[in-house]
Amino acid sequence: MLAKDVAQKRFRPTTWREGYDTDEVDAFLDEVRATLTAAGEGRSGPRVTAEAVVATRFTPTRFRGGYDQDEVDDFLDEVVTALRQLEVG
Fold first, then answer.
1. What's the pLDDT tens digit per position in 9-27?
2. Other residues' Cβ atoms within 10 Å of the Cβ of residue 64
């Protein structure tokens, strides 16, 4: 996974069913992107670990805009896999 994959990721919006707070998700993915950018350039920098991704919780939304929870969770699973590969190798 590359930083651009994170930057280009878009999630389906929710309104009437529960979603995740968009600002929180976007801010966290910015940190993930910075981590992947630093790793791709071979430098140290902001570091989000796989365990930090697993432990992250977002504020649920209801009756206001949010991101589809399943889509976010599925993408974060991919992020965890990518970060674990970086941590090992």
1. 999 999 888 999 999 999 9
2. 11
Number of domains in the chain: 1
Question: In whole angstroms, what is the distance from residue 18 CA to residue 68 CA?
Answer: 8
For residues 28 and 20, give the distance between their C-alpha atoms in angstroms, rounded to a whole number: 12
SS3 13: strand
Contacts of 51 (CB under 8 A, 6+ apart): none
- Predicted TM-score (pTM) of this structure: 0.92
Query: Is there a contact between 41 and 4 (Cβ–Cβ < 8 Å)?
Result: no
Domain span at residue 23? 3-88
